C-alpha cells in the first residue's frame, strides 16, 4: 500500500506538472473518479474538473511551484498536510494546509485552507 506521504507527494506533483498528458496520468493515479477539491478560491469535481482547476492555477501562478511543508498527519481515512507555493528554492508567496479524505488508497476529497497569500491589486 502506498504511504500517505507518497500519495501527497504525487498530489503535489500534479499541481506542478505542466505536461497535460502526464498531469492527467498523475491525477488518475492520485484521485478517485468522483473526487472533489475545494478551497476559498477554486474548486474542481471529478478528475477532469481537477485537471482544469490545476491548469487555471498554473496560469495564475506561472513559474511558481508547490511543495509539501512538513509531514503528513493521518488517521483512519483522513489526513492533513501543509504546503507552500513559491519560486524554486525561494521563499513561499502562498501557504496553507489541506485536509483530505482517502478511499481505496486514493484521494476522494481535499478541503484547502490558505494561511497567507498576496493581496489582489485593486
Task: Give structural notes.
- With 122 residues, the chain is an alpha+beta fold.
- It has 3 helices and 7 strands; from the N terminus they run H-H-E-E-H-E-E-E-E-E.
- A hairpin with a 2-residue loop joins strand 6 and strand 7.
- Helix 2 crosses helix 3.
- The relative contact order is 0.19.
Structural class: alpha+beta
Distance between the termini: 48 Å
| Bulk shape | globular
pLDDT averaged over residues: 95
Radius of gyration: 14 Å
CATH-assigned fold name: Nuclear Transport Factor 2, Chain: A
Strand content: 35-45%
The biggest sheet, with number of strands, parallel, antiparallel or mixed sense and barrel status, is: 7 strands, mixed
The total beta strand count reads: 7
Helix content: 25-40%
- What's the CATH class label? Alpha Beta
Topology pattern, helix = H, strand = E: HHEEHEEEEE
Low-confidence stretches are none
User: Please, how many helices?
Assistant: 3
CATH architectural name: Roll
* Tally of domains: 1
Secondary structure elements and their pairing?
Elements: H1 4-16, H2 20-28, E1 31-38, E2 43-45, H3 46-60, E3 65-68, E4 73-75, E5 78-86, E6 94-103, E7 106-116
Parallel strand pairs: 1-7
Antiparallel strand pairs: 1-2, 3-5, 4-5, 5-6, 6-7
List the defining traits of the structure above:
7 strands; globular; 122 residues; alpha+beta; Nuclear Transport Factor 2, Chain: A
